[in-house]
Specification:
Layout (H helix, E strand, L loop, with lengths): L3 E5 L3 H13 L3 E5 L2 H11 L3 E5 L7 H10 L8 E5 L4 H9 L4 E4 L4 H15 L7 E4 L2 E4 L4 E4 L2 E3 L3 H12 L5 E2 H8 L8 H15 L9 E4 L3 E4 L3
Parallel strand pairs: 1-2, 1-3, 3-4, 4-5
Antiparallel strand pairs: 6-7, 7-8, 8-9, 10-12, 11-12
Helix pairs in contact: 1-5, 2-3, 4-8, 6-8
Length: about 230
């Protein structure tokens, strides 16, 4: 069955362009032009990836993202945010709310297709059943679940992949470029802040004091590593 992509944008010409390129790449494409319609599709059609414009007529993409991430049955839906705004603050807010990727307009439709494929590779790859336990952290790769002292931690697909990289190599210092390549599927200049935002999100979810992280430590001039406190 082809993977199902939901494209949400009030600009119907953009939806038409993306639909054409995505269908040519073999995807099934659903379309929505408002936040409410997008949420209806997400609830009923369970898309494999959501391409979400942030500026919608009824509610913004941030509100749509909040609603999706707050629903346990929808929370793992990968979200690519699409916007004409290029302010880094907007990008960081979107990622902190649970966006997995961010594309600014104008864009190359082929790049959007490549980003969709990258997200699908990392979020739907078939894993050999495996559980990694480090202290109170338990990562069930087969069930795609992280728990702390038995309590489930809600992670986006990108955050889960980062935790898998860290927990498979405890104590090892990973470069930013390595973490981006393995978790997002690509790395280029300017992506460092995107990675830092994902790390900040994970710290907020697993650390007792995110401002003084004990699990995920910054390695000066290199990147990050995970250690058991």
């Amino acid at each position: 069955m082809p993977k199902r992509i939901l494209v949400v944008d009030d600009d119907r010409s953009i939806v038409k362009i993306l639909r054409g390129y995505l269908e040519l790449a073999g995807f099934e494409v659903l379309a929505a032009h408002t936040g409410e319609t997008a949420l209806q599709h997400v609830r009923h059609d369970k898309p494999d990836v959501l391409i979400l414009d942030l500026m919608l007529p009824d509610q913004d993409g941030w509100d749509v993202t909040r609603t999706i991430r707050a629903n346990p049955s929808l929370a793992t839906t990968p979200i690519i945010m699409l916007t004409a705004r290029v302010d880094d603050t907007d990008k960081i807010i979107g990622l902190e709310l649970g966006g997995d990727d961010y594309i600014t307009k104008p864009f190359n439709p082929r790049e959007v297709v490549a980003r969709v494929r990258a997200i699908l590779r990392r979020s739907q790859q078939e894993y050999i059943p495996q559980v990694i336990q480090i202290g109170k952290l338990r990562l069930d790769i087969d069930q795609h679940e992280l728990t702390i002292n038995g309590q489930v931690v809600d992670l986006t697909p990108t955050e889960f992949k980062l935790m898998q990289i860290f927990m498979e190599n405890p104590g090892f210092a990973h470069t930013r470029e390595e973490l981006l390549e393995k978790s997002v599927g690509y790395a280029y200049e300017g992506m460092g802040r995107t990675l830092d935002t994902h790390i900040r999100n994970i710290r907020r979810k697993i650390e007792d004091d995110p401002g003084q992280p004990e699990w995920i430590q910054t390695v000066h001039s290199i990147g990050y590593r995970l250690v058991e406190p």
